[in-house]
Predict the 3D structure of the following.
Amino acid sequence: MQTVRSNNLLSALDLSGGVVSLIGAGGKKTTMYELASLFDGRVALTSTSHMFQYDETKVDLVTIDRDSPLEFNLDARVVAYAGPTETRNRVGGLMPSQIETIWRKGNYDLVIIKADGARSRMIKAPADHEPLIPDFTQLVLPLISGIVIGQSLTSLIAHRVDLVAEILDLEVGGMIKPLHLAKLISSPKGSLRGTKNMRVVPVINMVDDARIEAACTEAALIAFSLTNRFDRIVLAELRHSKVVKVIDRPAL
């Protein structure tokens, strides 16, 4: 196992631009804003699902698609694009075709897409219609919260708890162990759903002490043994813009 200490999420992901989709639970918007703040070029933020309003302290401009085409503003480095919704304090998502148009016009070096919702839970399993990852995505970041290890599996921490329980092979109310986190990360019905042949780097967030770091490291190594779909897992505490550890697949 090769581990690397890094305090920069861009370098941990080997990310220099392109189209990134965020899925899962436990910090998608935090990750979106962190990547946008670290990236030097022009960034477009958007979503294929409903989400809370964009934090206007984190973006230079919010553009809502109503009856006119989505705008490009040369003076704004980080621009958020959204669809209309009547739900209070939320914005709507865009169609993948709209996002592709934004990307193909070449005005942005990096496009970051929130591709599903999690109802503010820490882990989730996708429904049949999720996630809505655009086909032109180059990198998928499945988010999951390491802090759930040692907790009971309930709807308080899990979105679609029955589906999560099925993937984890764990009864609702049972204690989540590193093996269970590894199963969710590596499952085609879980964190890998809809990722097709895109590059995938799971991000285990909320790793905020040594105990959680050790448990999440164990989960990452188990995940490598369960799938060949990815070769790197990032452990992070993104509320404080911290990459805790980068874990690469052990050499054979």
Summary: Residues 2-248 form a domain with the Rossmann fold fold (CATH 3.40.50). The radius of gyration is 18 Å.
